[in-house]
Amino acid sequence: MSATRVLVLNSGSSSLKYQLLDMRDSSRLASGLVERIGERSSRLKHTPLATGGGSREQSGPIADHDAALKAVAEELAKDGLGLDSPELAAVGHRVVHGGKHFTRPTVIDDTVLAEIERLIPVAPLHNPANLTGIRTATTLRPDLPQVAVFDTAFHTTMPEAAARYAIDVETADAHRVRRYGFHGTSHAYVSRATAKLLGRTPEEVNVIVLHLGNGASASAVEKGRCVDTSMGLTPLEGLVMGTRSGDADPAVIFHLARVGGMSIDEIDALLNKKSGLVGLCGDNDMREIRRRIDEGDEQAKLAFDIYIHRLKKYIGAYYAVLGRVDAVAFTAGVGENAAPVRAAAVAGLDSLGLVVDDGLNAVRGDEPRLISPADARVAVAVVPTDEELEIATQTYALVKR
Questions:
Q1: Beta carbons within 8 Å of 137's beta carbon, 6+ residues apart
Q2: At what angle do helices 127-140 and 65-78 cross, to 10 degrees?
Q3: How far apart are alpha carbons 385 and 366 in whole angstroms?
Q4: Any catalytic annotation for residue 151?
Q5: What are the pLDDT digits (tens) for 308-322?
Q6: Residue 1's pLDDT is what?
Q7: Active-site entry in 151, 228, 326, 386
């Protein structure tokens, strides 16, 4: 029997998410999460989807990612899905930052590892954790292809006019300062799924993808290729997010340092962890914000209005970039579940052909669906993202070749 399974790993600084998929039919065999790695209160939740059994949980100290992946391997083995299985074709790793040169999934070797490591200064929270997961998986299965799928890869098709900041070219090149974009696996998957929903190929449609979760980003996808995206050198730029400010005048940093007496680290923490929705109203859960609005909370309403104002600006900007828009697709936790966000984002844009049907918008579901009227000039869609499937698909296609 040929190897058809792919294990997808997403290593965070203190967590490890995983899914095991069979690429014959893209079915999920198992999934799980290890969280609070390095603490005494570590927790592993494992769900054996292939057997239909219930989830299993274990708590207790898990010292590091090496111990976490070994614990995952033990759980998979209990279901006959162990890492030693000859049916396992590869391990696909989510790597957040691939810089300018990693434009596609890549089999990992020492050269690739070194480049991911060199990119740590522009992804200090993510790339070190991604490297740890890669090295641990390689130790457990040194004979197996380890494949990096980069968050930034989908956005490497942006023209220089969109990717460059208007700063001194020599300085920018010396320090790799340019717009890279993130959430690329989600934008790639959702843009293709939206085309399929419309009964067309990706090369036939222009799509604005709105990935709205705690982290949020927008992209303009022209005939299957990204031509602009809202995140930049780091995931801080762009939309208002759960705890990140998104777009802000760079002089805010100088002002806070000179007038506020804040250190660079304090400003970094402010903009990344204490801003966005949580900075505006104390909550970064859209459900709670909407509950507070319904109760007449003016601070929550202002936070929501700022969030929507920024979102609407990007929709309009990317409409101008694309020239013709066939669909706007909402995805990720907020995009898929918050009907008021979707309605507010396109409210008043009917002159651009963007209209939401209130009844369709109120329907919840796990499948891609249209929420615009049948005669709408531009389709408005809700398309659940599937980054793990995208990583597995890209990984399997590469190792098959």
A1: 7, 9, 69, 91, 93, 144, 146
A2: 50
A3: 10
A4: yes
A5: 999 999 999 999 999
A6: 45
A7: 151
